[in-house]
Amino acid sequence: MATDVDHIEPHKGDKGKFWALGNLQALCHRCHSAKTAREDGGFGNG
């Protein structure tokens, strides 16, 4: 079940990418955490 909203392309502070609806997808928490860790070393480190 999807529980988290994920940025398909990391926004890295870019407000346009952050709010772009086309850059969002729903993921389960486990998948979101794994994707985040792969992309920036873990939650809050990017």
UniProtKB/TrEMBL annotation:
Signal peptide: none annotated. The keyword Transmembrane helix does not apply. Coiled coil: none annotated. Residues 2-38 form the HNH domain. Keywords: Endonuclease, Hydrolase, Nuclease. One of its GO terms (molecular function) is endonuclease activity. This is HNH endonuclease. It comes from Desulfuromonas thiophila.
